[in-house]
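Q: Is it fine to ask for two folds in a single conversation?
A: Yes, each is treated on its own. Send the first.
Q: Here.
A: Result:
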Amino acid sequence: MDVDHFGLAIINIAANSRDAIADIGTFHIQAARSDEAWVSLTCSDDGVGMSEDVRMQAFEAFFTTKPSGMGTGLGLSVVRDMIVQAGGKVEFDTQPKRGTTVRILLPLAVGS
C-alpha cells in the first residue's frame, strides 16, 4: 500500500474519532501481525459511537452525520476504497455511547 494512502486512511479515522470524543476522550492505535499473511491496525475511541442505521451507511460516499459545512461524507468511503485496493479489509464495531473500533487488515508486504 502506498505510504501516503496509508497515512490518509489513518488521518481520516483519527479525525472521525476526534469529532466523536468531543472535549474529553481517548483514541488508540494498535498495530500487530495478525498471522503469517496479515497485519492488523486497530483504531479505537471511547466516543459517542454509532447507531445501527448509521453503521450500515458509514462507508457510503457522501454520507455524514456532521453538521453542514463540517464534513463531506467521503472520509470512511475513501478509507475503505484504499484498503480494498491494497488487498485488505476494513471492519468495525460500534455502539451508541460505547465508542467505535475500526480494524484494518492488510496483506503483509515481504521486502526483497
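Q: Second one now.
A: Result:
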Amino acid sequence: MHVPEEIRAEAAALIDHHALGQWKPNDADRRAAVALFHFLETGLPLTGEQIRSALARTQPAAGLSERLRDLLRATAELLDDAAEAEAPAGRDAVDHVCLLLDALALSRLADR
C-alpha cells in the first residue's frame, strides 16, 4: 500500500468500519491518533517524521491494529516523497488519513 490511491482507499475503509461500529479502535490506536491529532491542531502539514514519532511513542506499538499501523507507515512513506505527497492524489490520500485520525481522536474524547 504505497500508492496514494491505496492509502486513500484504506483510510476510507477504516473510516467506514469505525462509523458503522465494525471496527473498535483499541487504546493504542486511540493514543496514536490523539498524538497525531495534536500535530494536526498546530495547523502545520503532517510529516512522515511526525507519524513515525507518534508510532514510536505509542506503547506498546504492537498493540496498534495491524491495518492502522500499516496505513500510518505507508502514509509516512508517502509524505517523505514531497512530489508525490503534493500531487492531487497524494493530498487526497493524506486528507483521508487526517479524517480518520480526527474521527479516532474525537471518539476518544466522546468516550470520556
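Q: Anything structural to flag on that second result?
A: Two points. The longest helix spans residues 88-111. The helical segments are 4-19, 27-41, 48-57, 66-80, 82-86, 88-111.
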